Amino acid sequence: MVSQSPDIKITPEAPVRAPSAVPVDDAVLAFEVGALDLRGRLTRLGPALDEILHKHDYPPAVGKLLGEAIVLTTLLGSSVKFEGRFILQTRTDGPVSLLIVDFQAPDRLRAYARYDEARLKTGQSSGELLGKGHLAMTIDQGANTTSRYQGLVALDGGGLEEAAHEYFLRSEQIPTRVRLAVGEEMRGGEGGKLHWRAGGILLQFLPKAPERAKQADLHPGDAPEGTATHHVPDDDAWVEGQSLISTVEDVELIDPDLSGERLLYRLFHERGVRVFNPQTLRARCSCSRDAVSSMLKSFAPNDRAEMVKDGKVVVTCEFCSSVYEFTPQEAGAE
Ligand SMILES: [Zn+2]
Question: Tell me: the pLDDT tens digits for 124-148?
Fold first, then answer.
């Protein structure tokens, strides 16, 4: 199903209208619940996710995990500025040893995973697939700035939602909740092909008075045993926000017939929710023959020579599986 974006602008001058029933796929929707000082983003992915995952022959569990990483990237990265880039990467010791999602503002997404087929078992959770290691987020604000930021969070047997919570608690100190859901949907026509769908929601508590955002103390870590932990009760508005987001079902996040606006309305209508224009996303790789050619030229002559097989050098893009062929001469491997 191809979804059309409703051509309605929501501005402060015209704040009230009914939620659109038209589902918008491959988009991030920013929203605000002013009465509770909550801000958030909602992502729905359909065809773009299909395009990324179908370029690889991933086992379903790997596709699902990479889908979660892609949704998380869109929730976190869609605020980077024009020409900026947000890269999410995990390196762990589990069956899925590497996930990379590259989001290039304003709308380009690409991603891939590395995994060990022999270690995959049915029923493994995201945390079990990842194992232990870390998740890194790199923000590059574009060619005209030198600002580059990297956030790092340990993965210790938990999934990506948990890692995101840990990151916001420790690094940003913003009360945050994240929900991620990925599923496959059987649709009629074309022999009933399976299609990937994903959705996610990020909710943050950003009160004007910073003391209201104080969270319960971090785990004391190395503190001596028996050290009393000091408990700060969560602000009432944040308690309400967390309880609302905890009611979201995975099926609601990926339901192709439930528009993102309707889902937000379902969650927050009692408090009033303001929804901004959707930001569209597409699956697009930035590789090219020229880029691969200059990469080859950066290799040592010996390494280039070793790449010659059957009289040619073949390079496959890990992100999009595009295959680039060069003669040994073109590859500088003679
Ligand atoms: Zn590519």
Answer: 999 999 999 999 999 987 766 667 7
Task: Give the Å distance between the CA of 281 and the centre of ligand 1.
Answer: 17
Query: Which has more confidence, 212 or 180?
Result: 180
Q: What is the 8-class DSSP label of residue 240?
A: H
- Residue 324 alpha carbon to ligand 1 centre in Å: 10
DSSP code, position 71: H
Ligand 1 centroid from CA 285, angstroms: 5
Q: How far is the CA of 69 from the centre of ligand 1 (A)?
A: 18
Q: HSE (CB half, 13 Å, CA atoms) of 147?
A: 10
Could you give the residue ranges of the DSSP H alpha helices within 298-333?
Answer: 301-306
Q: How far is residue 242's CA from residue 289's CA, in Å, rounded to a whole number?
A: 48
Side by side, the strands of the sheet bearing 282-283 are: 148-156, 132-140, 85-92, 96-104, 108-115, 282-283
Q: Which of 11-15, 41-45, 119-123 has the lowest mean pLDDT?
A: 11-15
141: three-class secondary structure by DSSP: coil
Distance from residue 101's CA to the centre of ligand 1 (Å): 12
Tokens, residue 215: 């969270």
What average pLDDT does this structure show over 152-166?
A: 95
| Span from the CA of 108 to the centroid of ligand 1 (angstroms) | 12
Model pTM? Answer: 0.88
